From TrEMBL:
Top enzyme category: lyase
Active-site residues, Swiss-Prot/TrEMBL: C334 (proton donor)
Domain Orn/DAP/Arg decarboxylase 2 N-terminal, first and last residues per copy: 45-273
Swiss-Prot/TrEMBL keywords: Lyase, Pyridoxal phosphate
Protein name: ornithine decarboxylase
Organism from which the protein derives: Sphingomonas desiccabilis
Length: 409
């Protein structure tokens, strides 16, 4: 299959429809990352059109410059960055983007470079010490939007973010008051934890916000509901995102904030989970265990360490008609921890030499890969078939042949 390279270095296949199975037929020796720009575009448009406020992309979920460009082209103009390296990356890739530095613990040098070199004006904080750092590093700037991060419950989420950051209820009043004095615009932000499985997570957090505003009696200009919007995985099918948006909108409308107050969100996972998947080769089979060429140190960190189940499909033509059974995976490194329990449902006749696509790795998957033990993946190919699952299209049947016709690029 003929291909050329995009401005950003991706291999682009010339043919109109390129599917995961076409990549497997090339028999790649290393894992291959498949990217689906149309899926990221669709997710971005969904947030831009339906979220009742501003959606900024949380870059840590997947910092690929190609993805940043796709999101920008689809209407995402604001980016939540957490480190000076992310600030530089987005500033370099998208010079007109607005950057918001939303890590509540920053190096003073990072704050100064972000403010003076890259024009960053939005910063989050959760202590008085961090507020003092921001004021010092920006030399008392008077054009700051300061977002006070509140600690909220992670009860509805698969990955907690409740212990590390955020002002506790008894600390919020003094902090909001002090930040109000230093800020041009004052915001309140929180993070309900990643993969929040119920809209209630946001409803409950907004009640914490209300209590904090009432107690501090300050004027608030920005409410930022953070990330946590779910994607869909085997055994983790969330309610429709519209329900989250409705809950958030209703709660926002009833908060005691200035009438011109803005509503922001920082989706990471929901914008990019469907963007990437990975084609791996089965190197060996031992009963119900498959030894594959990517793993815990590759794109499958979450599968190994927190038992996350990703969708899988055998890429074989003609398709196997054996019935699906549960498999676990071993990754390629020499260590027992490189194990993904699954179960991953694959045809019973799978064997060494077969290729498997592991789906929904666009968020916190392909971004977390290392080259430990000499294993890794460099090749990335754009494909045009549908992701293995989607929050944004009704995939009416599991028939892949019809699925690949659904997309509109
Ligand atoms: C990680 C993170 C996000 C993105 O979270 P998702 O669960 O991927 O949506 C947003 N905001 C902050 C501050 C984060 O740390």
């Amino acid at each position: 299959m003929a291909e050329h390279h995009s401005a950003l270095g991706l291999a682009i296949a010339h043919s109109d429809a390129v599917r995961g199975v076409d990549i497997a037929q090339r028999a790649p020796v290393q894992p291959v990352t498949l990217v689906r720009p149309h899926a990221a575009r669709r997710a971005a448009r969904f947030f831009v059109e339906k979220f009742p406020g501003r959606s900024m992309y949380a870059v840590k979920a997947n910092p690929s410059p190609d993805l940043l460009q796709i999101l920008w082209d689809s209407g995402i103009t604001h980016f939540d960055v957490a480190s000076i390296a992310e600030v530089r990356l987005v500033a370099r890739t998208l010079p007109d983007a607005t950057l918001c530095f939303m890590h509540p613990v920053k190096a003073e040098e990072a704050i100064a470079e972000a403010y003076f070199t890259h024009g960053v004006r939005v910063f989050s904080l959760d202590t008085i010490e961090e507020l003092e750092k921001i004021v010092r590093a920006t030399r008392g700037a008077e054009d700051l939007t300061l977002c006070v991060r509140l600690r909220v419950s992670s009860d509805h989420s698969k990955l907690s973010l409740a212990s590390k950051f955020g002002a506790a209820p008894h600390e919020a009043k003094d902090l909001l008051f002090a930040a109000r004095q230093a800020a041009d615009a004052l915001g309140i932000c929180f993070h309900v934890g990643s993969q929040a499985m119920s809209p209630e997570a946001y409803g409950n957090a907004m009640e914490r916000v209300r209590a904090a505003i009432v107690e501090a009696a300050v004027t608030v200009d920005v409410i930022d509901v953070g990330g946590g919007f779910p994607s869909t995985y085997p055994g983790m099918e969330p309610p429709p995102l519209e329900r989250y948006f409705e809950t958030i909108h209703r709660a926002f409308e009833s908060l005691p904030v200035s009438y011109s107050a803005e509503l922001w969100a920082e989706p990471g996972r929901a914008l990019c989970a469907e963007y990437s998947s990975l084609v791996v080769r089965v190197e060996k089979r031992r009963g119900a265990e498959l030894y594959i060429n990517d793993g815990a140190y590759g794109a499958l960190f979450d599968a190994a360490h927190i038992g996350w189940r990703f969708p899988v499909q055998l890429l074989r033509e003609p398709e196997s008609d054996a019935k699906d059974v549960g498999f676990s995976f071993y990754g390629p490194t020499c260590d027992d921890m490189d194990h993904m329990a699954g179960p991953f449902e694959l045809p019973a006749d799978i064997r060494a030499g077969d290729y498997v696509e592991i789906g929904m790795l666009g968020a916190y998957g392909c971004a977390m890969r290392t080259a430990f033990n000499g294993f890794g993946s460099e090749e990335t190919v754009i494909v045009t078939d549908e992701p293995m699952d989607s929050l944004y299209v009704a995939l009416e049947t599991a028939d892949r042949a019809t699925r690949s016709n659904v997309i509109k690029l």
